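=== RUN LOG ===
request id: a7f3
mode: sequence -> structure
chains: 1
length: 284
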Amino acid sequence: MKTRAYIFCIILIQLIFLSCTDAGKDQKPKPAAIAGTEELSTDVLKESFINTGNPKDSVGVNKKIIEAWAIESLFYQEALTKLTEDEIQIEEQVQTYKKSLVNYIYQTKIIEANLDTNVKRPEIEQYYNENKDNFILKDNIVKVDYFKIPLKAQALSKMKSLIYYSNPKDKDQLKNLCIQYADNFFINDSTWLYLDDIKKEIPNLKDQADFYIYQGRVVELNDADFYYYLKIKEIKVKNGLSPINFERQNIKNFIINRRKTQLIQQYKQQLLEKAKAEKKFTTY
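=== RESULT ===
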């Protein structure tokens, strides 16, 4: 078996790499394999040839490549004999798909070259005010101060005293200490977060009903490893109007997508008008 594998490998390599010599002659190069009425050329096989560095392994890998090709070829040939003419009339489908794919690729190039992605605040605000019915909250959201600090943190006592910050300097100092020692923290007066995401962070809070979470509530507790602090600074309940700051990125994305559609529509309309002017578009 080892000798047969070695011989097969030599023949396979000769078919691939010596076919270049045959190509220089008038005679047609020998195929690497034949399956039914189809041939696998040595050039095609050469592109898929895998040299593992071990002749025996290379034989096994490339034999599977050839057999995989044969299976698909034989299956296709049988399909042609088993299906009706109507069932295999796919040229129109292929052309339709090709047309759609080519158009998509070209649209992408046009958009990349011409789209203005700069969306200014007034445009976002105008869209928000004109479409408030589209911005109804599906979940509760909150603004918070949140800290998760290891009990072993050297600055824990100092951080606890700064958590009730009343001036910007204390807040900045607290942020710097959190960067060094906190396992997780969040201090932001303008960013909204999903309440469920916050509740998951704190033991004994994730199972509490939402009506226990209200504006101004403070949660302060320890477990075996961490000190937790949460202050609800503001809350918006589901089914109410979502704040613009929470929807800003969504609105920006929508405006950009609308611009894409308008850009392509205008470009296509210009093509039509140009064709009419140049007498390249006629209806009968």
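=== NOTES ===
Residues 1-11, 17-24 have pLDDT under 50 and may be disordered.
DSSP finds ten helices and seven strands in the chain.
=== END ===
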